[in-house]
Design a protein that fits this description.
By secondary structure, this protein is mostly helical. It contains twelve helices and no strands.
Length: 184
């Protein structure tokens, strides 16, 4: 079978008209490997088709997980896990975000941004010990883009309502402070 669209304009039109669940059912018939599907996910995410992007990411990552030989051949796997997890977190699904973010951290243990976003997911589900460990790991690594991370942090900070008091009780009152403040 071929793709249900032709070229980029056709892909954009396809995303605008197809239900993500129908797309999920059709993906196995597409002549694309997981790397291609990840590229489709990136395009869909950039275009604002978040639910479609999540379907693409999950399908591609399932293909990688079901065929470990594909993992060695793909250098974008860590990025796919990271973006998938971060997108889940941004859309209010922190429980679902933990698995892909943990995979990304395992595949790229020196990436501070991954540890930072994973810490955020753990905070949102109330797993504060894991969150503290991930945040400590993120801070210990070089290469943290404080502007980018601070913008992300501000975007999801509203989800932390109710956890601040618990953090104060545990003596971690500064845990939810804006990370941009640390760089000033």
């Amino acid at each position: 079978m071929s793709f249900p669209f032709a070229g980029m304009p056709g892909f954009q039109s396809y995303l605008s008209t197809v239900d993500p669940n129908k797309m999920r059912a059709d993906l196995p018939s597409w002549p694309a490997d997981p790397t291609d599907i990840t590229a489709f996910a990136d395009i869909a995410r950039t275009a604002g088709h978040i639910e479609h992007a999540l379907v693409f990411y999950r399908y591609a990552l399932d293909q990688f997980e079901n065929d470990p030989s594909k993992i060695a051949a793909d250098t974008n796997l860590t990025g796919a896990y990271y973006i998938y997890g971060k997108t889940l977190l941004e859309t209010g699904r922190p429980v679902d975000a933990i698995h892909p973010l943990s995979k990304a951290a395992k595949l790229s243990p020196k990436d501070a941004a991954t540890w930072f976003v994973l810490a955020s997911a753990y905070v949102l589900v109330g797993r504060l010990e894991e969150a503290h460990g991930c945040m400590a790991r993120a801070v210990s690594l070089e290469g943290v883009d404080m502007q980018q991370d601070a913008a992300f942090f501000r975007k999801i900070r509203g989800h932390f309502t109710g956890l601040e008091e618990e953090l104060r009780r545990q003596g971690r009152a500064g845990f939810l402070d804006d990370p941009a403040d640390a760089s000033r």
